[in-house]
Task: structure prediction
Amino acid sequence: AQSVAQPEDQVNVAEGNPLTVKCTYSVSGNPYLFWYVQYPNRGLQFLLKYITGDNLVKGSYGFEAEFNKSQTSFHLKKPSALVSDSALYFCAVRDKATGGFKTIFGAGTRLFVKA
Amino acid sequence: EAGVAQSPRYKIIEKRQSVAFWCNPISGHATLYWYQQILGQGPKLLIQFQNNGVVDDSQLPKDRFSAERLKGVDSTLKIQPAKLEDSAVYLCASSLDVVNTGELFFGEGSRLTVL
Result:
């Protein structure tokens, strides 16, 4: 069965510093990996995805993520954090399930960026 | 392009009452999802439709929850009777196709409080 883990409930970083939000996954086949962001009282917004190809994928708002097959990880990164990046971040994995592809979400990591 | 529309945004009911949520996906999106997001947790898939057929409803509590997607467009999620533990945000999402590698597009959610 597929699963995704976000080991940190919260990440704190100072504005201007690099940030990393961690994600590990488990799937039976080839993973399709996603990151979403959720602002207060809003739905989830897509940030970036890994399907195949280059292990480093770039997404919205300057975010990027690195796919590491040997470590089964897909960590979200940004070189320089902004206060406006403060939000809830979800890693998601899609694997083929009965009848089609099911997207499973991690529990989320809250990012606080301090000015 | 119009996004995923959901209503109502907020609903407060007493336990054992019933409630219904409505979702209108992005035009042309064949796949529609209902997720339950309990405070502090990641979204949990309740049911997934491909056009007007059910792809996955393995985590839908069928004794009290029901969902339909008539004509393969709009969808309604119903809870009857509600329990205290049903308090959550109900997120509707859509995607172009169940087999594709694209992202999910989420509505802003319907927040349910059961007293």
User: Anything to note?
Assistant: The mean pLDDT of chain A is 92.
